[in-house]
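Example record used in the benchmark description.
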Amino acid sequence: MNREVVGDESGSVARVSPIVLMPLRELMATIAVGVGVGLLVALVAYLMNTFVFGVVLCRPQSSAECGQAPHYAAIVAMIVGAIAGVVALARLRVYRPLLIVIAATIALWGVSAMLSGIMWYWSVAALAVIFGLVYGLFSWASRLRSFILAVVIVVVLIVAIRYMLVA
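Model output (structure tokens):
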């Protein structure tokens, strides 16, 4: 591996790894944040659909837009979940929290609408597991010291996840 050499005034030389180390505890904490974000997204989507968008869009005057209420609720829920995810990962001092959350949000955009056809408890459980795994995956992938290389790998993973969700 190509390692950067760092020296100080005393002439000693230390090698710096191209990958930032991540203890197992930090990975598990990141996955737990992802699970929490998945649960939050499911809860906010349900509440927004039931009490906001369902009420506004499913009136007799605008019944044509009633089918779009779950989609709008899912969009708001993903944004709320992304904000909560950045805050939680930053509080845990996870390396590159914004990259992790943006990548997870793009990769999982629309997944709650895809799960709307199954029973609510399976949908909530699936969202929690999927978000936890994706947060863990992107936190692991963003550990490279080279930001450009980390972004390239994250983009490849986003494309792969989107392909798996659509196929």
